[in-house]
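Lab meeting notes turned into a lecture example. A postdoc, R.K., suggested we walk through two folding results consecutively so the class can see how the record format repeats. The first protein's sequence and structure tokens come next.
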Amino acid sequence: MSLQFLWYIPNQVEPGHRGDDVVAGHNSLDTLTAQARALEEHGWGGALIGTGWGRPDTFTVATALAARTTTFQPLIAVRPGYWRPANFASAAATLDHLSGGRVLINVVSGRDNLAAYGDSEGDQAHRYARTAEFIRLVRRLWTEENVTHHGEHFAVTGSTVVPRPAARGERRHPRLYFGGASAAAERVAAAEADVQLFWGEPLDGIQERIERLRRLSEEAGRDLPPLEFGLRITTLVRDTTEEAWADAEAKVAAMAGGGIVRDPNRHTAVGQQRLLDLAGRGEVLDDNLYTAPGRFGGGGAGTTWLVGSAEDVAKSLRKYQNLGITHFVLSDTPYLPEIRRQGDRLLPLLRD
């Protein structure tokens, strides 16, 4: 199975995300395009573009970047509730058609300011049941005609999406990524997603979850191709091991002293809490998984870091690959220089 190497593009209103360089026009089209084109030039497949109310609209940013690039694949984060299934299926199919099949989708069920855009949700069971129905209906709208569906959360009658998503070999529509570590989230992934994304947990935790998701897929009677797995993590790469650890420790010291703004999206969802709990097992787990950032405000992919030379980090990522990870979403700040550094030094080792 081929490997996918993606990065992260920070569509943020405020500059300096996770210690990024603070520059004028940090979220201008020219700045973001420079990052997307650098990804093309330095061996990356594309980038995750996050979502959340109070940030630039993710789909609009992805569309603009797709129009200014040729191979860049936007992994567009979307939320059921912000989008209704038919509207989203049509928008994504249109962009996929116009871009020649470059769209990837990350369905997000985590917390957001739902009331600000007129959404609401019940308990966790309700939230993930809605997500499962959203994914199932979107997939039908991309692959069937005259779709009629009257479910608990969504309804369409005689709905046909045109144009259709671009066909590329066996690919019939954009790949659907999904995250979440709760039991409810894992049931959705096992039955409905194409790729389950994990945060940067130690190898034993990832192995346990992969084995459980495969069992859940069998129990659910999954009628899709086998679930694939991805890793979203910060990778701090320097010329030498010593230099990498010195820089990592300096960054954490700056976080501890308030020099880097606390991640505003840091929540204690099940997956996030699993990461925060890792610090209790030690400051460095496996060979070079650094847990200290989580103690000082790092959230999501910034909670744990793989630290070292390109050879060190490649060795660790290959261990995840041996467990079954085939999709890697990496990043470090400042984003643009690290696109180049890690594209030139890390990716060739992983592709070897």
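The second example is placed directly after the first for contrast:
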Amino acid sequence: MALRHIVSWKFAGDTREERDVHAAQAIAAIDPLREIVPTVRALSLHRNELFDGANYDLTLIADFDDEDGLAVYASHPEHLPVIAMMKEITTARTATDFTV
């Protein structure tokens, strides 16, 4: 059993192109965390393909052994600047955590 952490963001920007720039920034910042944070068991990022503007723009799916592993990720020094950046380039965030 593992804990799955799913986060979706809506990016700032009036056009798909502006949101694409933010998505690229987010992916470049988040993707390396899979190798940096030792408690990450799996991490994938998915750019929305349909219903642009209505759906969230980017989704993270990450697996951890348990809640403690997620806590290590959340407070990891390499993750903290990513959180700050995401707050600057997004207008909304939603998250769900559950056991798989």
